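Two proteins follow. First one:
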Amino acid sequence: MLNGKVYVVTSPDLIAAVNRNSKALAFNPFIAQLGKRITGHDEATSQIVQHNLNGEHGPGYVTEVHDGIVAALLPGTHLESMTEQYIRNFIARLDSLEIDQDIKLFAWTRNLVTLCSTRAIYGPGNPFSKNSKFVDLFWDFDRDLNLLIADFLPSIIVPKGNRARSELGIAFEKYFEDYIAGQTESSAMIQARQHAATKHGISSWNQGRLEVGTLLGVLANTVPSVFYLLVHIYSDQALLRDIRDELEVTCVSTVSPAERSLHIMTMREKCRLLHSTFQELLRVHALGAGARFVREDTMLDDQYLLKKGMVIQMPMAVMHSDPLIWGPDAVAFQPRRFLKHTEATQGSKQKATAYRPFGGGASLCPGRHFVALEALALTAYMVLRFDMSPSNGQWSIPAQKQESLATNVFPPEKDILIKFSPRKGFEKVTWVFDMQ
């Protein structure tokens, strides 16, 4: 698969055509080819994963897991429940936030989001809640993923990542051995995954290995996204002021003179500037590439013959910075950019197709709603409750470093030191939340 011709597609019209041909131009074959190299599951499980991979003959393991995850993460009670657990956890941790101390912002964000996300998704019995060493182990695994995929003497070439993958797999093996369906505090997403794995005869050992791969989808893009969202907002005092004003007008209510409540579920709709800033963050910082495998000869858009067995690449960095699509300021971070493009015009349709931080078509990321709520809720709570300043007195936006093929929003090349302090004028206000 990886040795033939690669077709690079950057035209919005052609990307739309790729999306329409989801059976012939499919993402799932990459799961079959790379999944075992990523997670290290055994050959028997690999056969289960590959069986009826594209759903031509009814459901298979991959299609059942995908459908279960989609149902669990669509807007509704399951998504709200998971989001509520995530917020309760980060508020509890922010209550003990170190004030006026030098803090490495990316490391802090990585620890906070990893612990709170895994608690919300897997419940209190997950490995991360039992032992925080798994936070560092996951990021060791993520950092070495490219060489693990190469699958050449991983215990020698990347011993740290290989050991991290193994320890995470063993920990999640224990998690699934203790898992009792119907008596779990895990999310509907994990319930669906565990049900499908049990139905298809996947052992606890292999479930643990497969879950290491799931963690990539849960954490690898979310953490850098939250980091860059915080940096962009706090480094721009006018933007910070406007987002605070918007939140207080649209999504905050006064419970008592000393207590305010943040309304979570209406933020994307009502806090348009905050949401636009999040969208722009992904446009600027999502630099990965979508991929498809050509399963049969396909004439794309009645113009281009794509040959069976080849690979399609759709690089986000190219599409997200194209001045023909985004205008002459395409390379600049403009937090209000997505406030200007809501009209149903041809230009806005092009932007919608070219904007691919969550992929598109049949492989559109099912976790996109949760990721947005994670980022927006944490950021809103932070800007309402805390001030943040760079320890050296000068804000800078760190460049990104590509570490993993599975990541679209790459982490920063270097961390930055910051200090938190209570927001001036709100030192005595207690902040709570509700799921309105």
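Second one, unrelated to the first:
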Amino acid sequence: MNRNLLAFGVQGHRLIIASNGYADIMQAVLLDTFGQGVQETSYAENVYLHPEMHNLSEYQTVHGSADDLVGKAKVNPSATMKAAAAILERHGSCNGVEEAMNRTIETLLRQDNATPDQGGSMTTSEFVDAALAHLADELSPSSTDKMDHPFPDDEKRYVPDAARLAMGMSTALLVIDFQNDFAPPPNEADPDAVSRTASLAANTSRVINSFRAQHREVIFLRFLGDVEYQSPSWQYRNRILNRKPFCLAGTPGADFIAPVQPAPGERVFDKRALFDAFLCPGFEAYLKERGYEHLVLLGLYSDVCVDATARTAFQKGFYVTLLEDCTLGLHLPAGEWTRLFKAVYGARVLASEQLVGMKV
């Protein structure tokens, strides 16, 4: 296997399962063999598969801890700085900082400003100071042609990029009330109900899988309509409209529509006879704790629970994206509720295929 990889390269995607020591060696060999840099200036993103840690991303220098250089001020900090820039870019809404860091390190090397492993004489601290000084110039107001506002300031925190999936912000996907009891029932007046639900489920699954593949969080909202959760006004409405409770806890009607299911470890918030997810205990606090600024919404129904959640999200300062082919209107036709989302919340309204195909 090793000879084939080194002789013929990697065709498509190749998964190597190996012990830690062996993988460390092969990573350095493959970087050099395929011209992807050297271990002293490279980092890797580690992904955890354990259900309790599946949302955790860790960025690690390829060269490891460099124990033999402890206290000698000779460690090349390039890999650590590149990893820090990747975290800021991908998880901290600092657009363009990865590219700026790479340019900075390349510039220093061309100027022979390097640590001993790269043929220079600088100490670790001297290299870091030089890199920070170069970055300060790179990110100064006079350099905005190089980089589009990578860091927030007091007057203008973000410049949302509507052409990118996450709009340059920390983003979560909310799957709202995508449950069996909310699926349109087949009847003579609506013979396409089953196929429409299947299409919604397929589109929703595609978006969820895309978020998971990018290690972005998927949060599920589940409506529970048990009588004991209903307020007096809710019970009164059901009585005068002759409505029976639905999505009862523990029943198939409250389950999510297959194949849409929370993965192990993904958060599920129960809306106990509530339209608005922000009324769920702990929901808003959780979003703030995770630092989310942009919410992508899908689920049932666009003009009821999805709208109630979008309305509060907008008023609390969240940017909103709605996926129009992953939701249905209960009382309003599609054109009306999409216009509402755009006009009232400034929401970005997209098809699932558009979102999945976007640059992150």
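SUMMARY FIELD: The CA atoms of residues 50 and 218 lie 16 Å apart. The first strand starts at residue 43 and ends at 47.
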